[in-house]
Amino acid sequence: PPEGTFHLDLLTRLGELYDFASLESERLSFAGIAVSVVTRKMLYRMKKATVRPKDWADAAAIVEALGPQED
Prior knowledge:
The protein is of the alpha+beta class. It has two helices and two strands; from the N terminus they run E-E-H-H.
């Protein structure tokens, strides 16, 4: 996973498990601009469900930083 305090992951396409309409998201303010982001739980599920070891490492980092996420 990236190091530091700020990370940005843009989704341009999804695999077969999810579509944009099914993503759990919330609106947050970033530098005074409202942005849509997936929830922590949703990001964890998405990272855990891939076949890429990089994403599994991201899922583990989410648990390490934020505690266990419900499946």
